[in-house]
Structure formats: C-alpha cells, structure tokens
Specification:
Strand content: under 5%
Mean pLDDT: 91
Low-confidence stretches: 6-12
Order of helices and strands: HHHHHHHHHHHHHH
Number of helices: 14
Distance between the termini: 44 Å
Number of domains: 2
Largest sheet: none
C-alpha cells in the first residue's frame, strides 16, 4: 500500500529504458570467487567465501568491494585487499542499519503519539481525522480514509476465532472493530497505527492548520519545516534499512533541512558539518540524535553510534560524511562523557 501523498515528482517523469539487451549468464559461487581472485582479491579460504556468497549473494556484497578497487581500473583490487576487509565493511553497514533503524523507530512512534495527542485533545474529537476540514488536499484526505477503511476490512476478514487460553490475542484495532459498530472508523490513536511512516509523514504535511503542524513539531523539539523535511529523510532511510540496502555511503536523495533556530538541538560548530558531508548520511544521524534529545534524553544511542564508527577504518567515516573530529562537537560530546 503506497503513501497517500506523492513525494519526489510524478511517475510520468520516469527515465527511458536503455537500448541494450542483458545477456550475462548466471555464475556459480565458485565462479564468482574465482572472478574476485582474478581481480586481485586475496581469498585464503575459498570454502568460507563461497558460503558467504551463497547466503549473502554476490550482487549484495559486490558494492562493498568498490572502495577497495583501484581508480580507473576494470574492477581490479588495490594490492593486499582481502575478502575479510570487504566482509567487515558489509558487517559494518549492517550494524549501522540496525542502529539507525532503532532511532527511526523511536522517532516514528513519537510522531504517531504527537499527532494523535495534539489533534484529539485540541479539537476534543478522537475521530478528528475523518473530517476534511482538517486537511489541505481533499483527495489526499480521501485516500487516507480509504487506507484506514481497507485496513479495518482486512482485519475483519482475516481474524480467526481465538480459542480460550490461546496466545493469539486480539489487537486493539480488532477489539474496537468487534466491540463498536459506530463510528465506522477507529479513533485517532488506533488510526495512526495503521499507517506506514511514509503515510504518517504525508498526513502531517497535509494538515490544514500550520498551528497544528507547529504544535506537533514542538513536542519533538522542532519546528514545522524541520519536521516535514526530516520525516521525508527518515522515510527514505527506513526503506533502505527495511530492504537491507547499502546505507553507509549512499546518496539519500532526500536530505534533512539544517536548523537555523538556536532552540533546536544541533551541531554547535559550523565546521562540524562541512559541505561535502551534507549529501551523505551524517546529517541524518545528527537529526536523529536531535529528536532523541527530546523524546528519549537518556538514550545510549549516541554512545553506540560512537563505538561503531570509532571501531572501524576511517574509510567508513568518509563514506558516511562523518568529519574526523566529529565527536568533539558539544552536540555529541555531552552524550559521550
């Protein structure tokens, strides 16, 4: 189920397909190990390498070989590069994804709570979202209602009768649907749980009142433009992490807006975020910690991030856009003391 407010332009703007026909044959794990060895990679234990290729996949692992290849070469490796170095980079990226996903989850839960708490209490209506007057675009509001309605219908269709003593208990949404016949749709605090992060982000941007958007953002220590921007970045990051994609040196395409207000928790020194870093994942990491400062101020996330980054080669920091002395900025150092 897609997000109910499009981001990033129309589908009609898609690029044209290339003219060539794909004719590369599939290769066995043994053939793929031989290919890497022929390109100069040191693989002392071929059985071990084959096992990793079978369970990870060559084309998932191959992007992690690129930083170890010679410039301008036909995939030739820098002398002395080992299979373990490539594998370590893959493992680092996996650990980074899990750590980032932990922070995104906390932020996502906080945004769900902030939206429903403010809108429900401010308007005194647990079903505020069913009224089009709260939204800028009626078509997007209609789509929201359709998403929630279809989720409810699916719950009713698929719910099996639960035997007494079974561990298969009703969800809160199932309880509402099986207990109440009216209103047709659930209250706001159940509605937000039916949405993906992308749909939640779209709901927030489609709120009619700027004052409502600002109130939600303030509860996370932000202002409205920042929360709108950062949520779109988190949607992109969450999708990468959920599909086990490469994160450490990827260009996200959607980057968090840099705060200008001193009331927002952020890096204190301008040189702590050089221009070259702004198109990498590092600003997103800073933004996540900024929100955590408000929603989970005693979190150990910054310390875990520091341990992960500092325990790996400098190559990882460059790919992420992390400056060499990143942890010296007071924004980070207060969490690491």
């Amino acid at each position: 189920m897609g997000d109910f407010l499009c981001t990033g332009g129309d589908m009609a703007a898609a690029r044209q397909r290339g003219p060539r026909t794909y004719e590369k044959p599939p290769l066995s794990a043994d053939d793929l190990v031989t290919r890497m060895v022929d390109r100069g990679l040191q693989v002392p234990d071929r059985d071990r390498a084959r096992r990793y290729l079978r369970h990870i996949g060559y084309f998932r692992l191959s992007p992690y070989t690129i930083p170890f290849q010679q410039d301008g070469s036909d995939h030739a490796f820098v002398d002395g590069t080992t299979f373990d170095q490539v594998l370590d980079l893959y493992a680092f990226d996996r650990a980074l994804r899990l750590l980032v996903l932990d922070a995104v989850e906390r932020v996502e839960v906080a945004v769900r709570a902030a939206i429903t708490d403010h809108m429900s209490t401010h308007y005194g209506d647990p079903h505020w979202y069913t009224h089009a007057r709260h939204f800028s675009q009626e078509s997007q509001h209609d789509r929201l209602l359709k998403i929630v309605h279809e989720t409810c219908q699916e719950k009713l269709r698929t719910r099996a009768e639960t035997a007494e003593g079974s561990l298969d208990h009703r969800s809160a949404l199932e309880h509402y649907l099986l207990t109440y016949g009216s209103p047709d749709l659930p209250p706001s605090w159940l509605m937000v749980e039916t949405l993906t992060l992308g749909q939640l982000s779209a709901l927030y941007r489609n709120l009619q009142s700027r004052a409502d958007q600002s109130a939600v953002a303030r509860s996370l220590g932000l202002n409205e433009p920042l929360l709108s921007s950062w949520l779109q970045t988190y949607v992109r990051i969450r999708n990468i992490c959920a599909h086990h994609g490469r994160l450490w040196n990827v260009g996200l395409g959607v980057y968090p807006k840099i705060p200008r207000s001193p009331s927002v928790s952020w890096l204190e020194h301008d040189q702590a975020l050089p221009e070259r870093s702004r198109r990498r994942v590092y600003p997103a990491l800073v933004s996540l910690q900024s929100v955590l400062d408000t929603v989970s101020p005693r979190s150990s996330w910054a310390g875990r991030l520091h341990h992960l980054i500092e325990s790996r080669p400098a190559m990882n920091m460059r790919g992420m856009g992390v400056p060499e002395d990143w942890s010296a900025d007071p924004f980070w150092s207060r969490h690491l003391g």
